[in-house]
Amino acid sequence: MIGRIRIVTQHLMFIFLIYGGRAGIKLGHSLPCFACPYVSGCSGHCYLMALQGKWGFEFAVADLFSYEGFRVLLYFAIFIFLIILLSKFWCGWICPFGTFQDWLAILRKKTGIRESEFSWKTRDGLKKVKYVLLAFLIIIPVLITYAGLHSDFSLPFCQICPAKPIMPLFTGNVDHFALDYTNVITGTFSALSIIIAAAIIVGSFFKDRFFCLFCPMLPLIQLFKKISLLRFEKEADLCSGCGNCHRMCPVDIRKVSDERSNKAVMDEDCILCMKCQESCPEDNVLSLKFLKYRIFLTSRKYFIRNNRS
Amino acid sequence: MNNKSSRGKTGITEKIFKKTIDEYDCEIESLKKRDDYSPVFDYFLNTIKISLFPENGRKNRVNPLAGILCVQAPPEILHALGVDSIKLCSGSIYAQRLSSDMPVLMCPVLKSLAGALRFHNSAAVSPDCFIIPTSCDWVVKLPEMLNQELPEVHFLELPHIKENEKSQSRWLEEIYGLKDRLETLSGKKLNKRNLRDSIRKFSDAWAEFNMLIEYRRKGILPNIWFTVIANSFLQDDIEKWTEHIDIVLRKYKQDKNESTDSRVFLAGSPVFFPNLKIPLLIEEAGMHIIADDICTCERIFPGAVCCDDMTIHGMLKALSERYHKACICPTFTDNERRVNNILNTAGTNEIKGVIFHVLKGCHPYDIESITIEKKLKERGFKFLRIETDYTKEDSRNILTRLEAFKTTL
Amino acid sequence: MKFLIEIKKCFLSLLSHFFLTAVFLFQSVISTAELNLPDTDIQSNSYLYFQYDAKGKEADGSAYQVLKIRTNNTAKNLSEFDSIEAYCRKSSRPGKQDYMAYRVPVEKLNNEYYVKIKSGNYSIFDVYVSGNYKNNTYVAQTVFYLFGDGLKGSTGKPGLVKLPEYLPVFELTESPQNYWPQTGNEFRFLCRVPEGSGSIKQMIVIIDNKKVSRIFTDRNGKFEYIPAHDIKLNKGGTSSYKEIILLNSINRNGKNYTAAFNLLVHRSRTAFLNVKNGAVLFTVSIIFFTAIVLIKRRTFKYK
Description:
The structure holds three protein chains of three kinds. By secondary structure, chain A is mainly alpha-helical. Chain A has helices spanning 2-19, 47-52, 67-86, 89-94, 96-111, 120-126, 129-147, 156-160, 163-166, 184-206, 217-222, 244-248, 255-258, 275-279, 300-307, and strands at residues 179-180, 230-234, 286-290, 293-297. By secondary structure, chain C is an alpha+beta fold. Chain C is built from three helices and 17 strands. In chain C, β1 (48-57) and β2 (63-71) form a beta hairpin. The radius of gyration of chain C is 25 Å and the shape is elongated. The two termini of chain C are 32 Å apart. Residues 26-43 of chain C have low confidence and may be disordered. Classes of the chains: A mainly alpha, B alpha/beta, C alpha+beta. The interface between A and C is large, with 35 and 37 residues. β1 of chain A pairs antiparallel with β17 of chain C, so a sheet runs across the interface.
């Protein structure tokens, strides 16, 4: 049931975020999801762009006490607020790029091709990539501002982000699939962007939520896990260790299944799709809470009802 | 086949076989005399007997027949490939006499099974293949002890560590191996739709069976009948079995919850028909078994398989994980979750006492009883360990202990 | 085998595209050089022009643009001019025909003259400066956008005056990328001249104090100008620009009027995009990664 609600929500959010701007909706620049600013007529912008640009690390600290400085802090504050409010719901339920990846996964399932899997070692190794990307999107803007790095390096992550070429396709814009021959830097970035987009499309076809394994937004959201209003908890004593949650997880998190003592089981890679909760056949093991209110609690009855038909 | 029948069923085998049939009939008769007997259980009582006469249930058999031991081999694959299955497990005390050449301290289940297999072997219709997961030592060595009397044994090497990648993929390989083996046996290729349907059928069966468990928890369904139903799992077609469970469920649907006191949890070694000694004695002592974690009762299913990737690989993986990771057989290295299961079930169902059944020679349970006793007592549960075998000589003695235990609850 | 040949074809086409583009870039350098007119021609004209200077944001969030007022090397020093006056016309959308303007103070610092335009919101500014020297009137003009988004909007409404009617004003009538003028864009001008002074038939294009070309009116009396791509701009960052001076002059009642329009252009954002090559690269990448996945995929086989 949750799965269906999620799919409906995802699609509504996709339409809302990609085309909402055409209806005059402006949600600002601080969304913690890949609502790509390169989509003309989108209703809000991914915070990663603000973060890399002049409202983030391209901002010179000397101007802190100015209107611009105020904006930098304001956008960051909104970003934090949105994260505290909805945490990883941004990933699993709202992010339009995530929805796009889910479409590819649905396509794979329809064609009957099996999902690819990583060995545990590879999977753990991939965890580091998003921190590399995060460092990349922080250091380069700082270098532009303070070390005179060429301004064509501006918005480095956006320039290689697969959402940049892919998402504008939904408004009929193929320009971001072009090779940019302006100079060596733009040429390299555009070529890299196209190659990465292709890799991510192929990847997400063969593997659920392939890009989410590298998404630098995840560690940013994870930073505020402790103060988030949403809590994903596990009663480890009640777990039978059946591994359903691990198998159903689109990003292959083992923690939920293997955790034996800690209550908080929201992993850094978790996208809160709640598939694990839906697939847990034991009563009261996993729960999702908003403040003290319980949104969902696993139960065998729910599992049986959900898996029938 | 002719060769087998000419060799078997002579002299002593014949005699013991008859005795065993009597034993079954006697037990069935006594069950039928119970106050809570109802004709809805006839199907299950008849099905249980199939393990003695595989030919009875399979007169018009066209499908190959495979015998499954223990609970780790996924019957879904057999069903998907059109291989019929019977569960290899025996509670017959007479059948043990056919395995007198085996070690004295051997686990009674296996001893009885060895004897019963010797009937099978001599029967006109015996399984074409034996699927044996390497759970405990007795199980592992059984085929060898039977001097290769078993026609075709397919071992599934059970990795005894659950939570690491190597063992999980090792077990998946074993499941693939089983698939290959069964494909050769049945001459069919496993296809996606059959496997999916099969998983669904077993899921439905589990859902129904789960209702039975719930009825027992509520005290509506008497434990003895629950045990009988669980024991008849896999002896007949799964859909038929599910249908009959549904009939039982419908019968008890109207009944109100019975507030039972002296609720106990039965843990430990397998209880299999016709050896219902322990459940019957507990009943006689005035206690009610509300829950158990016995692999021939509540644990016949590992739980329903859910699967996101509906390809053959995805489903086989799901099956392999479900039958391996979710299994709390004591032969696994780590059984924290087994203790947790007892604690939680007991905790949520107002169960105060845990009776731990150890069959003499059943080492894994014997070993585990120590840690479980310690952990249960820490949490304030009453614990009683009963070590026995299939013989009825010690019944009075056990009953006295059980009655004493009841007063502590 | 066919599949391999297809891949090979794709690679070759990709390579050839890269090569052709390199050649194209090289040629564009040569063509700019060819356009240069002999230097002697420049001696005859003196003119006053704007040069773009510092641009930025104030602490309150409003944007500003500083324009330096310069004379070319043949003209007199600005201090010898009399009545240097600056006007500014502000509108919120392009192409608004409104001749009301307000005066802007001309600041002097270290013998250099400046105009500073400030805006608290998104606006288009048409800035003029005029100066007289002897019998000549010189006018400089430019148009630019400011993206202010401060807490307060504009600093009050300035008193509006009518622009002096003698100014031969450049009307930028059509421009595809108004807020971000780029090389390769088509710019169309209308030159409004005072009554009785005939019409302007030609303009001189000056880049880096060098006369580069002349442009003539078309049938509708409009000038059309397409700034050529410049490899220097391409190599610079996104905000690098070049200033192109469009010069015209008229004679009215024995007085000379010379007007210089500063057209600031950035590098083209679209001219060097090649979607076709991108698509080829994309397709090749898709095939490549699919092949990798299919080959490297872990398979479970019973051994």
